[in-house]
Amino acid sequence: MCSELRFHGETTDLGVTDFVKYAYQRNVRQLTMEWLTRRCRDLPRCIFSSPALKHLTLNGSFKTSCIPNSVWNFPALETLSLTKIRFGNGLDLSLDLFNQCVNLKDIILHDCSMYGVDTFSICAPHLVNLTIIETAVFPEVFKVVAPQLETLTADGFSSDCQFLKLSTVESFNSLKKVNLSLLNKKYEKGSHVSLLLDLFKIVSSVKFLILDVNIIESLSFRPDQLHEPCPFNDLKCLEINTSMLKEKDCIPTIPVQVRNYLLGNSPNATFYHGFTS
Predict the structure, then answer these.
(1) Which residue, 46, 54, 213, 243, shows the most beta carbons closer than 10 Å to its own?
(2) Pick from 24, 30, 76: nearest CA to 45
(3) What's the per-residue H, E or C state across 19-39?
(4) Can you give the residue ranges of the F-box/LRR-repeat protein 15/At3g58940/PEG3-like LRR domain (predicted)?
(5) Are 134 and 111 in contact (CB under 8 A)?
(6) What is the dihedral of CA 131, 136, 137, 138, to 10 degrees?
(7) Is residue 34 scored above 90 in pLDDT?
(8) What region does 261 belong to: left with phi over 0, alpha with psi -120 to 50, or beta?
(9) Which residues contact 218 (CB under 8 A, 6 or more apart)?
(10) What burial class does residue 16 get, using C-beta atoms within 10 Å of its C-beta: 0-12 exposed, 13-18 middle, 19+ buried?
């Protein structure tokens, strides 16, 4: 039995297929694959089926490597990290790739593209940590069914200025920490606040909430939309992340209305921020 194998090279079907067969025949537990190519390639289906694999990392380049649309068969998989990977191949469809990965605990989707995907489902009964960052193109909806989810880290905007639309069929009752940011500077301030408030409702059970300074500025830009009750039921800590500010930047002021909206149901919550009062 082999514990870990790494592949770094071109995505020629023969080379990848031979490497994967070698790895899976030896019941490899951890597989990392990295490649550099500007040519669009569909990754071989054989990559996505192994009874023994526990940790899978796929690092593409230029988002030219496309995942097959068939369901993955990884009954033992616990951690999944995907960087610069394309899903859906531009087709108008919904994807539910992970429903047979029943032991998944950690998922990282970094700089991936879901162009043309209607609903991207993540149904994982044991998922604890979910990270969705620097996304190139969002699906119309991210459907997350993860009753044990504890940590969510997400950028609210994709590179093409879509806003993250998250849905679930049940509450995230185990949610402890949420870290949200708006890193794309191309968006028009205030245009997305209603979608941001919808996202707050989805994660309303969180205990430790981190929001970046761009979110606070966006809420401050449209205080007229903060008339609804605070969605957060029992915050223990609210932190404003100002790390993206440069030394020469002025430290902004957090309006009372924004603060009251976020902490309305949690008067005893700890509040960390770099804002002026």
Answers:
(1) 213
(2) 24
(3) HHHHHHHCCCCEEEEEECCCC
(4) 25-215
(5) yes
(6) 10
(7) no
(8) alpha
(9) 182, 189, 190, 192, 193, 196
(10) buried
What is the distance in angstroms between the CA of the first residue and the CA of the last residue of the chain? 60
Token pair listed for 153: 């880290």
Percent of the chain at pLDDT exceeding 90: 52
CA-angle at 40, arms to 39 and 43, nearest 5°: 120
Give the C-alpha separation, 14 to 5, whole Å: 17
Model pLDDT, residue 65: 75
Catalogue the E-assigned strands of 129-200. Answer: 129-133, 141-145, 151-155, 166-167, 177-181
List the chain domain ranges: 1-166, 176-277
Q: Which residues pair with 56 in a beta bridge?
A: 31, 80
The partner residues of 66 in beta bridges, in order of sequence, read: 42, 86
Instruction: Quote the pLDDT of residue 68.
Output: 87
The whole-angstrom separation of Cα 230 and Cα 224 is 14
Residue 88 DSSP symbol: G
Q: Say how far apart CA 191 and CA 197 lie, in whole Å.
A: 12
Closest by CA to 120, choosing from 148, 82, 77, is: 82
pLDDT at 250 over 90: no
- Alpha-carbon distance of 198 to 255, in angstroms, equals 21
Q: How many residues are there in the chain?
A: 277
> CA gyration radius for the chain?
20
Q: Are 145 and 124 in contact (CB under 8 A)?
A: yes
- DSSP secondary structure string for all residues of 150-166: -EEEEESB-TTSPBP-E
User: Are the beta carbons of 37 and 13 closer than 8 angstroms?
Assistant: no
